[in-house]
Amino acid sequence: MTGKRLLVTGGAGFIGSNFVRMALAEADIACLVNLDKLTYAGNLRSLADVEDDARYVFVRGDICDRPLVERLLREHDIGTIVHFAAESHVDRSIVGPDAFVRTNVVGTFTLLEAARTVWGDDVANRRFLHVSTDEVYGSLGETGYFSETTPYDPRSPYSASKAGSDHLASAYFHTYGLPVLITNCSNNYGPYQFPEKLIPLIINNARQGKELPVYGDGRNVRDWLYVDDHCRAILAVLQGGRPGETYNIGGNSEKQNIEVVQTICDLLDVKLGLLDGRPRRSLIRFVKDRAGHDRRYAIDATKIRNELGWKPQVRFEEGIQKTIDWYLEHQDWLDAVLDGSYQDYYARMYENR
Ligand code: NAD
Ligand code: TDX
């Protein structure tokens, strides 16, 4: 990228904040505008180290606010949109799907319309990168992988709303020639992830000696990718990806949930010592399964590897250790995000489960 002018949506969230930091450090950026509504999942503390960078502008706002989005595109002469903003947690989508349809479907539509209006036919050097998930492909059995041609089969309100947004993004390429690229990535983990997601929730609970809720039989499989590897993949797609194309991104690192939880317990036992003489595995509780729980996700990342030379650099064993160390060293960040609303959420989701 040469002197790019970026609009990043959802840059105060988990992946967005890691991406903003990496892009400012490693890519040739002239201006990076971060548009984020600061929902429960967005936290400016995650970007405290870049806020003084003269190229960085933070705007608190909603991606559904079309006049605002159009103004930002014009005022900052934006050439590249990297769209992360979303409601991202499957369990929340089961108890309250409304916000998912609004932000993920209507919000993405609003961004696409704003880009089409402001950019017009002047799209030669522009890019709209829509960040999506492997969950749109549904659930795998014990074998097989999701490729870019796997038919969509979303099964949760979250994945259905992401699938809807993917279809809109793709339609804007085919119908209007908007230079859209779509990435579908597997489960991310790493610093700054909100502790509603499996890995940070288990680290936080296990550190405090609280019960570790494992849904169902714990044998559901996810393909884990360290967040920096996802961010590098997005930079590679911005650099060399072809408009109209989809790129699957995965860690080639399938684990059953129970293995992930046991690994975190064992690493914390080594790091912090046993809990009152007991290993942390004794905190594991099998609880009521998630409704419509997808059994297995696994990505075939051949296309991005062959076309763009991307592959994961961080092995799970290394990434999980780095992630645990980060959470132990950033109790202040955790305390700041675990406010009253998190306590209410936790009680609603896990008490009497
Ligand atoms: P996150 O929940 O941590 O962050 C989402 C961010 O979007 C927050 O900062 C929030 O304030 C902001 N936001 C929400 N609604 C908004 C709105 N209406 N307007 C403006 N900002 C709004 O999410 P994440 O885990 O960082 O995921 C980022 C993107 O990557 C999402 O699109 C998600 O679907 C996708 N994705 C996530 C994963 C994963 O494992 N976390 C994997 C693949 C794809
Ligand atoms: O307490 C828990 N216990 C448990 O067993 C939680 C929170 C989760 N789980 C299980 C459910 C899943 O099989 O762990 C697995 C991972 O769960 P999440 O962290 O909620 O992630 P998942 O549902 O797989 O979705 C994630 O990856 C794809 C992100 O949240 C999505 O935004 C992304 O698109």
From TrEMBL:
Keywords: Lyase, NAD
Entry protein name: dTDP-glucose 4,6-dehydratase
Family annotation (Gene3D superfamilies): NAD(P)-binding Rossmann-like Domain, UDP-galactose 4-epimerase, domain 1
EC number: 4.2.1.46
Record bears the keyword NAD: yes
Any one GO molecular function term: dTDP-glucose 4,6-dehydratase activity
Cofactor(s) of this protein: NAD(+)
Broad EC category: lyase
Source superkingdom: Bacteria
One BP annotation, GO: nucleotide-sugar metabolic process
Domain NAD(P)-binding residues, every copy: 7-323
Family affiliation: Belongs to the NAD(P)-dependent epimerase/dehydratase family. dTDP-glucose dehydratase subfamily.
Catalytic activity line of the entry: dTDP-alpha-D-glucose = dTDP-4-dehydro-6-deoxy-alpha-D-glucose + H2O
